[in-house]
Design a protein that fits this description.
- The complex is a heterodimer of chains A (about 800) and B (about 140).
- Chain A is built from 19 helices and 45 strands.
- With about 800 residues, chain A is of the alpha/beta class.
- In chain A, the strands form 13 sheets. In chain A, strands 1, 2, 3, 4, 5, 8 and 20 form a seven-stranded mixed beta sheet that branches. A five-stranded parallel beta sheet of chain A has the order 11-18-12-13-14.
- Helices cover about 25% and strands about 25% of the residues of chain A.
- The longest helix of chain A is centred in the middle third of the chain and has 19 residues.
- By secondary structure, chain B is of the alpha/beta class.
- Chain B is built from four helices and four strands, in the order βαβαβαβα.
- Chain B has a four-stranded parallel beta sheet, sandwiched between helices.
- In chain B, strand 3, helix 3 and strand 4 form a beta-alpha-beta unit.
- The longest helix of chain B is centred in the middle third of the chain and has 18 residues.
- The chains are: A alpha/beta (about 800), B alpha/beta (about 140).
- At the A-B interface, helix 9, helix 10, helix 18 and helix 19 of A face helix 1, strand 2 and helix 2 of B.
Amino acid sequence: MPGEKPKEKYDVACLGAGISGIVAAHELGKAGYQVCLISKKYGGNIADHKNWFPDDNCEMCKATDQPTCLKESFSSNNVVFYENSTVISWKRKSNGFIIEVSRGFITDDCIKCGICVEVCPQKAIYLNREWDRKYSLDKEKCDECGRCIDVCPKDAIALEGTGERLKARAIVDARGFDLFDYSKVKSYNGNEKMMSTQEFEDALSSNSLDLDGKKVALINCVGCRDKEMDYCSSACCMISIKEAMKAVERGAKAKVFHMDLRLMGKGYQSYYEESLKRGVEYQRARIGEIDGETVIYLDSSGDEIKEEKFDCIVLSTAQVVDKSRDLDLDTTEAEEGHFVIGAKRFPSDIRDSVISSLAGGAEVMSYLGKAKPEEDREGNGDWEVVVCTCGNTLPVQIPGAQKVSDLCKNPDILKGRKTIVAACSPSNYASLFKSKADKCEIVDIRETGYWAGAQDDEITRRIEIARRKLSHSDGLYPVEGGEGDENKRLLIVGDTTAGRECANLLKQNSFDYDLREIEDISKVEYLPQVRITFSDGSSGLYDSVFLTSNPLLLPIKGKDLLEKVAEDVNNKNVLIMLSEQCSRIRQYYPLALEKAIELREKGANVFVVFGEVCAYGLYERLYTKAREMGVIFIRSDNYSLDEGQIKVRDEALNEDLVIKYDLLLEARPSQGKADELAELFDLDLGGEGFIEELDYKFAPMKTRRKNVIIGGFAVGPCNRTEEILQGKAGAILLVNSVVFQETLKVKVNERRCVGCELCIKACPYGARIMDYNRKISLVMDELCTGCGACITACANNACYFDDKGMISMIDCAMGE
Amino acid sequence: MKEKEEKEPVIIAFICNWCASAAADLAGTSRMQYASNIRPIRVMCSGSIDTSYMLKPFLDGADGVFIGGCHPGDCHYIDGNYKARRKVEEVKEILRSLGLDDERIRLRWISASEGKKFADEVNAFAEELKSKERGRAMP
């Protein structure tokens, strides 16, 4: 293999197919880049989770447009998936990387006949997942007897290993994290009932754990937030709460031991309150020791060492990134063309991973430059027929048709072809098949009409109808500004950090966009493009819209934390106030810490009064640094703020303190104020004044409207870094969220039209308008759905369908 | 047009999306057998079928044209089916003036629930065309 020329060339190589890798690969592929996705384990860490915050639904499929279950398989346009493969090395070559990939021990020639499995004495050959296209070979089990090689009819087994060299212009590193191995903690000597959260979740879903009446301890921050690993894994607090809720549901008593509860996201606080209602107990403590079933800890309210017995001890283990790829705050562009995304960039939960991988995708986009416009996917030759027999349950016999047992799982065979696909429930799979094939028409063989009696000629007839429809669709034309139009018109609403960042990125890639304020917009219509009427009377037709907004700031007494401190603070007392609400909003904590460090460096005595320390992720390091520098943190919800001094009850000391201050900096509580946006754009307004996203975790910036993207404070609280990320993410989503319209349009024979306006009355979509100058009724193409109502209504036969479609349909019906 | 000996008649059917098309589906689900001579083309409304579309199959050598519309008063577009009826009369006139059999175009009202009626009508039409002089409406 070495020295060999790279076989395949890609624009982007995406390493790791966890949620970050999947999302980035999908969006980049959609944007027109050739992407390869190389993964060792499909699904990454999230594949092990069964339940999700907040409603236990797995809506992973919403992360991409894929109609099938994303947890099971992934396929996307322009993305080549190297499954069960590992990257051995990569090195930089002129304007790109040469990547060496190990592709396991069985080549792509494998036809899954299963003979090798039968002969293998070591049971080393197995099917990783049922829908895998080839078997996998476990080299550790294999004793190289060679029997499989002898029997394989395709010579697909290569015990020396198979590999490939790829060339890519950019690398997206989404290899995520491993979970901390809790057996490394010497003081935790639990019995077999001590497990990690993922093991606990496994046990819950397989019902192998009887929890009724038992006591469950959930211990946070195992393996992180200590001297060695000075960061917070961001996700564990919510995982613990979620699992505590699960345990309570099953009749157990759950107690969460936490250092801080970092409820910094939208809806986290209310989830926590819900868990309190259901009887989950919380204890602030760092667990010093676990002995069998006893948890030994120091009570936060005193110096008392407590021991408590539990039936089950669940450890929230930390996200650990391979030491060789150390975590750093800004590793995004550590090397030119090498982008780090997802949990590897910053410890994060699914939502943050998705946003960061979208942002990473946008960065790649601006690094590589605009993708070349796709070649015209016309497809050559005749229409081929592919019949899916749905796992061989449909005994279909169509002469000349290719039979596939599970098309939905192997849609790649349609690639580059012009096919009529006969399959079940095409409504679910249509978009997938259509994205794969050059041209594709779908026949539902299970659908009502022609399936009766499972007669093949019925299906043949159905296929014939499809053929007819196809000749019909040759007469269709895209709406102006839709597909085929290279310059997509994009709109960014709100001159916010996110909005500007998005605009910046679009500008770099020379996309055509507008940046407007919400106040400018007076009317929004969905056509399916978005037609926006501005308050100055002008209007524009946009393919997709990115909505951002500023937060609503509530009044405060002191100086705003955001403002620059100009005065001399040396030896003065500075008080930084983070009220209960503020400290939980992720926006403020990093800011407050940075400010505290800055002032402390100038010689001030800094006191921070807070409700909870939400120094999530790598911001934990700031927290540690601030403490080391002597910033005094006082946890309290109970204080009275007067002029020049504050009376506060320190929960840790259990004492009342009076602090005199010279300067008061306050974090300004804020709320979402997206109600106006939501109303204008007809979106759902969720809790806390933010717009409801399509899915909290997997589609955090999409809405139920396909071409409306939300970001910044329109969707949830965020800090500046996150707002920038969301702005970037918005850019790639904007470019990719274009809705195409392909329907038959009505035309008007102007010589016949007498301007009677009957068609205007008849049109249910408002697509007919009157040109009063010429006394002629016109058709607005973007609104016309081709229902034919106006044709019916027209007394003069002035409205007609573009004949080409219908005539070719009749031709096709006749021709054979 | 190629003259093929002993050929089953070819019927082009324009069926309304809201009624006859649904009826065809119903006939299918109820496992009714109906003549396979029919080649349905779904349209949004029988009223949107231009007279030229009705004539075009005859020019191409079809034996008959079948139009399925909603019952009077049931049209999704208020009065499309009446317009269809008028257009069919027009086409019949044209056929007659050309010396052709005006029975070769047939308009029937079939509602979405009448799967049986759809199958019966199609079968009857196919039978009738078979009994007519073999060959196409036009040479």
